[in-house]
Predict the 3D structure of the following.
Amino acid sequence: MTIPDAARSLIGRRLDEVPTPALLLDLDALEYNIALLSELTKRAGLGHRPHAKGHKSIEIARRQLKAGALGICCQKISEAEVFVAAGIGNILITNELVDPIKIEKACALARDAQIMLVADDPRMLSEIDKAASKAGAQMNVLIEIDLGQNRCGVSSIEEAVALAKRAADLKHIKFGGVQAYQGKLQHVSGWVQREAIVKKTTALLSDYLAALEGEGLSCEIVTGGGTGTLEADCELKTYTDVQPGSYVVMDAQYKAIGGRTSGPFALFRHALTLLSQVISVRKDWFVLDAGLKAMSSDAGQPEVIGRNDVSYSFAGDEHGILRSDSGAALQLGERIAIIPGHCDTTINLYDYYLVHQGDRVVDIWPIDARGRIA
Ligand SMILES: Cc1ncc(COP(=O)(O)O)c(C=O)c1O
């Protein structure tokens, strides 16, 4: 993706000079988060395979790999294509591929990178085997297990064993193990509640692994886990590698789940900020230039940074409203920095990050896989 010259010219400028709304990325916070995940997983003896569906950036993926990631995860084949073209050599596609054209594309990518797929249906395995045979490849496949998410994945031990056997029997498939991602657990509020439910579902995962092992289907890879369950996953050590995504930039939704001690979840730093501006000062509220097109509204309450005397609400495509119960005074033209409610869906609205250190723009990174949803 080419960055427009007007955006490039912002490098070196102060943040109060950039046009708003703008998506900011704090380089020091990002580096801190990348290093911390690497350190925590290394200490626990686990690998990490960060999910790139949120940040969608080649530059960030490269930094994650440099810090020791085994590879990255992508959700969609079109997303994976962007990263493989950039030389990223190890990608797990964490979503089921059914369309034979997509499966063929995955087999084609396997010529240039190590590609791993997931499956929860014998028909998928047959399609993968067929396409791999045509491409002269052998595809690594993980069986996806549903531990209560009620989304994709087999939900009984019998199904898992049957599917793994089928995968192991097919000539052009290498049975690599299992994926058991638990999305619902990530945002369970309160550490005690979160840890208890992670322990319960991990015990269930162990039952699956024991049954597979008992049938001679040993799982080289047991992957799953996200930002919210990371600390518990590192203690339980049932996964061989974890795949957090949001940790790298964080968002207000994650902040609100609560940390191990009282207070917000603050294991990782907030690297992502939406910079906006007050464009109208009314008697009872202030209007910002950032609405639904600047920030997603699907999850999490956006949080105004450094100002707990105002709260944000969406007021249409291009507008947001700040209200105050305590008579806060904001000036026309004032810059307002916001932590978006949900990072993934907000990032997908932008072409690039304005990367900053302190109050200076130091670089511009394209959001390379933006809009790659197929
Ligand atoms: C399969 C899979 N793995 C990992 C993640 C990353 O989770 P998080 O962003 O909560 O760390 C997701 C997010 O939805 C996911 O779907």
